[in-house]
Design goal:
Blueprint (H helix, E strand, L loop, with lengths): L42 H24 L5 H12 L20 H9 L6 H4 L4 E3 L1 H8 L4 E4 L4 E8 L12 E8 L2 E3 L3 E3 L4 E6 L10 E9 L16 E11 L24 E4 L29 E2 L10 E4 L4 E2 L3 H8 L3 E6 L2 H13 L11 E7 L7 E8 L18 H12 L7 E4 L3 H4 L5 H24 L6 E5 L15 H17 L6 E3 L1 H5 L33 H15 L2
Parallel strand pairs: 2-9, 11-13, 14-16, 14-17, 17-18, 18-19
Antiparallel strand pairs: 1-3, 3-7, 4-5, 4-8, 5-10, 6-7, 8-9, 10-12, 15-16
Helix pairs in contact: 7-13, 8-10, 10-11
């Protein structure tokens, strides 16, 4: 697995704010607590008093400079935290998370339609200023941050002249990677040319050097355009070395995910490496990376179960909760007698096939195509059975593509979907919905997509209403967010900028109409740390079947564990409720 591609790092742009460097130790003020009539200070005391006064002036100037243009209280807090004024050593901390965004769609449209009209709004971003980190990086030193703590940093978009912009809309890819850690620090666009991100590393993985990489993929909402490839910027603006110092602070133990944990709209997880076979660089004859023994155990609290079965050479994903990795016996015990219904893009096909092959032990998956309805039996000879239905939604004609949610405008396609919920004496137990990749190639604007998402949410709400009217229990419905497209596909019509926006819109619409009775499975967050190249994907799929063949990146074989991890996450959603 490779880190994000790294090119030359631009030198600090003109106009960048510099972190003030305080002087040496503060002078100690003489105490006069025991003297009601203090004597006139002597020469040495006067010098100390003058030094104290000047020190106060300097610190006030520092505070003033950090409380200036842009978003100052936020930056001032960051400065104090960085120099130690906000230390939480020994404190009990919390895991980094992404708060749900109320009115996501309205806010997106408002920012997308925000007018220009002034130089700082019409200027194009060419660089950034990260005041708290740039000076350390310029000096060749790795900034030292406390492990376990959440560190928040503000940065500003700069134009060609090094002046700050005062309008948002740029799409930054931010990656935090170490030897055993990969995560995407969540980014907030404040709409005024300033952005902030937060990062956190658990003490267990804090050893060694980390790199914080910032890539400007698209500018001024251009990733949301219908033909986005010609607007790509894709410039690496920073690659900042970081170190995380040991800390006595304690993080809450991650608990295994339960039903309530899937209620969040977006996740902020991390991939951690719990083991590694250094002699496992090549695939075997079947194209598989069987680096660890299948029974190699997970390390609590990061996961539970057989880590080796993930075929990731030790990597595993966790978020605000951790996930169980299922054995075949446990998976069949959970799924026995259930009916799973999938509606989405071709990544569903890969996930279903990988779930059957790698977890459930089913060898014949020839019936797993874009549209199928089949029953599977436990190949170990047990009595367990499982029914899976999958309906491809890239087009109402399953041999075609690039309609996405618009496929629901076809009456016959709507009737096909309803038939699985309206006939017979039972309905699916669990429904996994998805859309996005094909939508990126169909909808000409964000506003048009919003209308399509509203229609889709109303349709699925109507399906559930009919289920209730028939006296059946409503299925648990989950939305599996669309992947972060990788490598060459980062520039295309289904680029990560657009997919993240489309995910947010559709999740909000589905929730507003009461469709997501189960919650959200954030596959965008899971795939993002691996989307910088094509080692784990072919651009749009993360779960293509293993094969000892030349992959898109020129190497023999490819990694498939990211999608296999998704299969286990789905099992947690289905079985831990």
């Amino acid at each position: 697995m490779s880190a994000p591609p790294h090119g030359p790092t631009p030198s600090a742009a003109a106009g960048e704010a510099k972190k003030p460097r305080p002087g040496g130790d503060d002078p100690k003020n003489p105490s006069c607590c025991g003297d009601h009539h203090p004597r006139k200070p002597g020469p040495s005391t006067a010098k100390l008093a003058l030094a104290s006064f000047l020190g106060v002036v300097v610190l006030l100037a520092v505070d003033a400079s950090l409380a200036g243009f842009g978003a100052p209280r936020r930056l001032r807090r960051q400065y104090l935290h960085y120099v130690g004024g906000a230390s939480r050593e020994g404190a009990s901390l919390s895991w980094l998370s992404v708060p749900d965004q109320p009115n996501f769609t309205d806010d997106l449209l408002a920012r997308w339609l925000a007018p220009g009209g002034t130089p700082c709004r019409d200027a194009r971003t060419a660089n950034i200023s990260v005041p708290v980190l740039d000076e350390a990086a310029a000096g060749g030193a790795a900034a030292a941050l406390g492990a376990a703590e959440i560190h928040e940093f503000t940065f500003w978009a700069l134009d060609e002249a090094g002046q700050r912009r005062c309008l948002g809309g740029d799409y930054f890819e931010i990656d935090l990677s170490g030897d055993a850690w990969k995560s995407r620090p969540p980014v907030v666009d404040h709409g005024d040319g300033s952005y902030s991100f937060r990062l956190q590393v658990a003490p267990r993985f804090a050893a060694g050097e980390f790199h914080l990489t910032v890539v400007l993929l698209f500018r001024s909402f251009e990733g949301l355009k219908f033909s986005s490839a010609r607007f790509k910027y894709r410039a690496e603006l920073r690659r900042i070395p970081l170190r995380f110092r040991p800390s006595n602070a304690s993080l809450p133990a991650l608990e295994t995910c339960r039903a309530a944990d899937f209620g969040r709209d977006a996740w902020s997880g991390r991939w951690t490496r719990l083991a590694k076979n250094d002699n496992c660089e090549d695939v075997d004859a079947a194209g598989r990376y069987r680096c660890l023994e299948p029974e190699h155990p997970c390390e609590a609290p990061w996961c539970h179960g057989p880590l080796g079965a993930l075929e990731s050479n030790g990597w595993v994903y966790s978020a605000h909760c951790s996930f169980k990795l299922f054995t075949a016996e446990a998976a069949w015990r959970c799924l026995d007698g259930k009916w799973l219904f999938f509606w989405g893009d071709s990544n569903h096909v890969d996930t279903i096939r990988n779930l059957l092959t790698f977890v459930l032990g089913v060898t014949d998956t020839s019936m797993v195509t874009r549209r199928f309805d089949a029953e599977f039996k436990n190949p170990a000879g047990g009595p367990e059975t499982l029914r899976i239905t999958s309906i491809f939604n890239g087009h109402w004609n399953m041999s075609m593509n690039y309609l996405g949610l618009h496929s629901l405008r076809n009456r016959g396609f709507r009737q096909l979907i309803r038939s699985y919920f309206m006939s017979g004496d039972r309905v699916p137990d669990v429904v996994i919905l998805n859309s996005g990749l094909h939508d990126g190639c169909y909808w000409t604007s964000v506003r048009a997509y919003v209308q399509g998402a509203e229609f889709a949410a109303e349709f699925w709400s109507g399906v559930l209403a009919k289920v209730r009217a028939r006296g059946h229990a409503v299925p648990r419905v989950f939305y599996r967010t669309t992947v972060a497209t990788g490598g060459y596909a980062r520039d295309l019509a289904f680029n990560p900028n657009k997919m993240e926006a489309y995910n947010g819109v559709l999740v909000e619409k589905m929730k507003q109409h009461g469709v997501l009775t189960g919650g959200v499975i954030d596959n965008f967050d899971m795939t993002f740390p691996w989307h910088y190249d094509n080692r784990c994907n072919d651009g749009v799929h993360y779960g293509r079947a293993p094969a000892r063949l030349v992959w898109r990146d020129g190497k023999i074989g490819h990694q498939y564990f990211v999608d296999l991890m998704l299969g286990h996450v789905l099992l947690n959603a289905i079985c831990n409720g």
